[in-house]
Write a structure and sequence with these properties.
This protein is α/β, with parallel strands linked by helices. It has two domains: about 110 residues, Aspartate Aminotransferase, domain 1, CATH 3.90.1150.10; about 260 residues, Type I PLP-dependent aspartate aminotransferase-like (Major domain) (Aspartate Aminotransferase, domain 2, 3-Layer(aba) Sandwich). The protein is built from twelve helices and 14 strands. A seven-stranded mixed sheet has the order 2-10-9-8-7-3-4, sandwiched between helices. The structure holds pyridoxal-5'-phosphate. Pyridoxal-5'-phosphate binds next to helix 4.
Length: about 400
């Protein structure tokens, strides 16, 4: 049994706010923050005498991350954001063929490809559900049309020349959770590229099982490790086969040789770490994984599901239209419900120290482990009061 009251004490923000949108950004729990301070103590007291220790610690975090998503440590690179990771992916494969994605993606997923002039197909969700299936397996006859609209890749093979499936694990606008295992089964020889930002840290991800080729995520949302960190997964095969445009002095096997005439990069994902590491962000991610693993990732997801259950039940009772898909396999930590003037309403709620966001045609609520059922109740009560105002 997890003592959630005790966990709540790790979040001083609870003394100030009813903070209910971790899909925007999360507070850092005190134990994670303290662990991160250790780096600054060492930096102040010992500076570069700590270098070897820091490098060893970085490698330990790489192993933690790899374990968490079912990858090998050599397939993990540390970045500074999801956008950073997605650009490194696009740099490798944006010119390989068309991209199948969807119209409600967060721009961090799509912009790096649009920028490079990649042919993109944005499918529309139906009832909030993003289903790539008909676009990957169009019937042999009539396969030139998808959902009645001509495919932009028509005439380039049965699937219209789609080389990459580009998707968020969980959609930021409505919380729809993509079935990555199913997508992995469907993908054939296409690349499966996943923006894991809105699922990473509380939902299970297994890159091998889902046959994911590339994945990018960051540190500051559900992982609760603060801004500045990111993770890039690249399947081993692609690290060996695909050549990035960029290379840095630390992309090579022995940077300490200071060889300024050769550029033979390492054969693992760390070749994408061009310069000295952003240690504090890496250590914060390691500490956050340790913190959540200490609670148990299954318990973390159970707790978030319990809180979203409370919310969904109350919203339904009060007659709100829920815009998030509600099938158990499609649920995440994000719940969006329709209201008029969501932007204005969220401002009013903030004036009452309740933090939620206007997203996807309504209000987005995204609770984390330290929130409580009473906070959900408080949100609903305040919301109703606000809606009663003329
Ligand atoms: C799905 C998704 N991807 C990426 C981001 C932003 O990522 P970053 O700032 O690390 O590039 C967000 C932020 O809301 C998001 O919801």
């Amino acid at each position: 049994m997890v003592n959630w009251n005790k966990i709540r004490k790790d979040f001083p923000i609870t003394e100030r706010f009813t903070y209910l949108d971790h899909a925007s950004a999360s507070p850092i729990p005190t134990p994670v923050y303290r662990q991160t301070l250790r780096y600054y103590d060492e930096l102040g007291g010992f500076a570069d005498f700590s270098w070897n220790r820091w490098i060893a610690r970085r490698e330990a975090v790489r192993r933690q991350v790899a374990r968490l998503i079912g990858a090998e440590p050599g397939e993990i690179a540390f970045t500074t954001s999801t956008s950073h990771g997605m650009n490194l992916i696009a740099e490798l494969i944006a010119d390989k063929g068309g991209v199948l994605t969807n119209s409600i993606e967060f721009p961090a997923t799509t912009v790096p490809w649009v920028y490079r002039g990649t042919k993109m197909k944005f499918i529309k969700p139906i009832d909030g559900i993003v289903d790539y299936t008909p676009h990957l397996n169009p019937p042999p006859q009539g396969g030139r049309k998808i959902g009645g609209t001509p495919s932009p890749f028509m005439g380039e093979g049965r699937d219209g020349g789609i080389k990459t499936i580009l998707t968020s694990f969980v959609q930021f606008q409505n919380g729809f959770r993509q079935d990555l295992d199913a997508l992995g089964k469907l993908k054939g020889d296409r690349f499966l590229v996943v923006n894991a930002t809105q699922g990473f840290g509380y939902l299970p991800i297994n890159v091998k099982q889902s046959r994911i080729d590339f994945l990018a995520t960051n540190s500051y949302k559900w992982l609760m490790a603060g801004y500045g960190g990111g993770i890039l997964y690249l399947r081993k095969k692609w690290i060996q086969k695909l050549k990035p445009d960029s290379c840095g002095w630390r992309s090579v096997d022995h940077p300490e040789k200071f060889d300024n005439r050769s550029a033979k990069p390492k054969q693992d994902a760390s070749r994408y770490e061009y310069g000295c590491p952003p240690f504090p962000h890496i250590f914060a991610m390691g500490a956050a994984i340790e913190y959540l693993a200490g609670i148990g990732f299954e318990n973390v997801w159970k707790r978030i599901r319990f809180l979203t259950d409370c919310l969904i039940e109350r919203l339904s009772k009060e007659g709100f239209e829920i815009l998030s898909p509600l099938a158990p396999s499609e649920r995440s930590g994000i719940v969006v419900f329709r209201v008029k003037n969501a932007a204005k309403l969220t401002k009013h709620l903030l004036a009452k120290r309740i933090y939620v966001s206007p997203r996807g045609g309504g209000i987005r609520v995204a609770p984390h482990i330290y929130n409580t059922a009473s906070e959900i109740k408080h949100l609903l009560k305040t919301l109703k009061e606000e809606l009663r105002q003329p």
